[in-house]
Amino acid sequence: MQGMSSLQALRDALEQSPNNLSLLLLFGHASLEQLHLEDARESFERVLELDPGHGDAQLGMAKVLLLQGEISGAAVRAERVLQMHPQDAQAHLLLSRVFLAENDRSKALEHFERAAQIDATLSDPALEKELGLTMRDARRASPVPTPEAPPAEAFEEGEPQPEFADDPFDEPPFDWRPETFYPPGDPARSGVTFADVGGMEELKEEIRLKISYPLQYPDLYKAYGRRTGGGILIYGPPGCGKTLMLRAVAGEVPCNYLSVGLHEIFDPYIGSTERNLHQIFETARANAPCVLVFDDLDSLAQDRRHVRESQLRNLVNQFLHELDGMRGENNRVLVIGATNQPWALDPAFRRPGRFDQAVFVPPPDDAARELIIQLLARDKPISNLDASALVAATPGFSGADLKFVFDRAAEMTLSAAIHSGHPAPVNMETLLAVARSHTPSTHAWFEGAREHAQHAAPDTYAHEVRKFLSLGAPTPPQQREP
Ligand SMILES: Nc1ncnc2c1ncn2[C@@H]1O[C@H](COP(=O)(O)OP(=O)(O)OP(=O)(O)O)[C@@H](O)[C@H]1O
Ligand SMILES: [Mg+2]
Q: How many domains, in total, are found in the chain?
């Protein structure tokens, strides 16, 4: 058979140049045609490793997944392609098949019609037969792309809750997309990088070790039996750069980035929240390698004992279930959660193994404050900046406190300029005066933490906070002159 011999030829060529994108694609499609699904999957995966946003490889992968019965994985990939290329007829055809497999005939027809309208040369006899509609007729039909409201869930509050099976959501909501999914090179992606974050060197290295280096040196990681991804929990007082750090990860890591906001999870329909969360993890897995980021994790992962509403309890259970599912060798997803209330998290989240690393982000030390001050002063009209004098005047200040000092000083200088009619740069006296009159916002946090650490079970977070407290870093709030 001709296909077989050309497959062998491609295989031989690939042995010579295993990273040749065009060859990999050809081989992937040829294998798919011969229904050598594992070979096809492997080569599309390889292409996506080399170029995670590659539409053709995404589609090829989606076809393989569909044939292997991984319907939601196929859907996620086809949707991804449509996000980048809404006019991709092949992706619409594929989604039509996906919905057919899901017994959603009307959605299947909708995508079939769209495909037909986009590309007049398309034909797909098998699909036409199943839908009972020819492409030609579909072209004449008018498109009706109206997303429906998600269905209300089967179980109500107060009823006994079902245990979570491996995949409890047989009908993922395909209309729903996390809004903050960014492939590499997406112009909307954060341009902040690690260089914009002062301090936190250990955390930066931890993130590189779990996701950047494995992508850079896959063979080395394989040789040492280390896997890509995992989980990191970042905690510490407010304003010390946790959110900034999460944004910097987007600018830093060379892979897909998915950041999750609460509004993307909470849904007025009971039960949909778990489904949304599940869908988010599915999206991350289907687009691996990927970083999945949850800021302000505490609002999502509250201690189940203190949560009355069964909806939130279910969400916590679902979250734990998803994290447990991430341990496999092939889950090349790095989950990073951040919180300033580690004690409010369900203890299950802090147990070793859920997040394999809990990293305490303390208020910046002298060196880190100096860096932050330099960053804040960049591109601002400031005369004779004396960073070390400012460092000395700001012990216990968070990055946000330092930012406040700069903003307030600029405001005062501006106000003076308006009244005097003489614009002048911000000077050191103003900066120092603002710093001296400001009480660092981290003090209150440490008082709360001290309280919680005394009563908490001896787990990682309490230990770290105690260690920091025993070093005597934050001085108690002093009476400061206004
Ligand atoms: N390490 C840092 N390097 C540079 N800027 C910083 C740093 N820490 C804080 N900042 C500045 O302070 C602002 C607030 O920090 P950020 O929002 O990241 O704090 P957070 O730790 O997420 O606080 P919260 O716990 O309240 O969410 C940042 O946008 C940045 O301008
Ligand atoms: Mg934050």
A: 3
